[in-house]
Amino acid sequence: MLEAEDPSERYKGTALEGLDAYQRQLKRFDIKVKGPGSDPVEKFFQSAQSAVLFPEYMARSVRQGMEEADILPAITATVTNISGMDYRSITSNPTKGQKEVKWVSEGANLPQTQIRTQENLVKLHKRGRMLTATYEAVRYQKLDLFSVALRQIGAHISRQLLEDAIEVLKNGDGNDNAAAQLSVGTAPIGGTAGKLTYSELVDFWAQFEPYEMNTLLVSGDVMLQMLKMEELQNPMTGLNFQGTGKLTTPLGANLLRTSALGTGTLIGLDKRYALEMVKASDVLVEYDKLIDRQMDRAAVTTVAGFAKVFQDASKVLKV
């Protein structure tokens, strides 16, 4: 609404270029939300006009916390925003013969690949927290410190969304599309149960044809086993990890550790085709003040779910 009333295009070539409408309102009311010189929370409530900016400040802080702890972009093929609560995704499960792009004689019919809607709706979950505090408890707190608490809430929401995504990757979205469950020591994966070596990783990688295993989600204990592999101690792998903090396997897959996975578990997936994130709402903040008890309340919520796109684009390996 602010952007519609005060378009950013008007400020090109000025000192305010690069700020959005909300940020320009912060400057208008001289509210500093971060840094050593940040203002106390009560600065937002110096007038009725500045008070209406407070829920957006909270929403942005929560979103920042979600983004800081978020690995969902590394495992989702696409994000779909919807305006309702009902959503039916699409899928295509061609046979081996249908995946081949064969020669077509002149005048002959082209081979068909069928895309259809899923039988069951995607399950969307509402996640959120109700923040309750006395006005005295927060009014003198610096906004920079208050943002830390809000970012932590965002990180918790992000963790819950990741758990939802992992559940769909492993067990499907209710449309009979659970990932294949493989185990070390059981064909086609060699080795000994309970021990992961580079050889088993190669066996696991080989199961993804015609997809590409470009992402690995692993539990903490599996991560330790992988870090001790001789192949992962390659100097170039180490330099990349030390320089960027990102670790890739010798097979080229992006390696992501998460405690949301059970012990002895890793999920391999083709990020381009495995998972769709469905969002019915961004972070919403509803704020009110209970005058009779001098309490401030804020509800922070988000509604999202996940759908499997191609069933064989993700597989689970138990060590």
Explain how this protein is built.
- There is one protein chain.
- This protein is an alpha/beta fold.
- It has 2 domains: 20-80 and 120-170 and 277-306, Major capsid protein gp5 fold, CATH 3.30.2400; 179-275 and 311-318, hypothetical protein PF0899 fold.
- The chain contains 10 helices and 11 strands.
- A 5-stranded mixed sheet has the order 5-11-8-6-7. It has a 4-stranded mixed sheet with strand order 1-9-10-4. A two-stranded antiparallel sheet has the order 2-3.
- A hairpin with a 4-residue loop joins strand 9 and strand 10.
- Helix 4 (54-68) packs across helix 7 (143-171).
Secondary-structure blueprint of this entry?
Layout: H1 2-5, H2 21-28, H3 48-51, H4 54-68, E1 78-81, E2 90-91, H5 96-99, E3 116-117, E4 124-134, H6 135-138, H7 143-171, E5 180-183, H8 198-205, E6 215-218, H9 220-227, H10 235-244, E7 254-257, E8 265-269, E9 275-290, E10 295-308, E11 314-318
Parallel strand pairs: 1-9, 5-11, 6-7
Antiparallel strand pairs: 2-3, 4-10, 6-8, 8-11, 9-10
Helix pairs in contact: 4-7
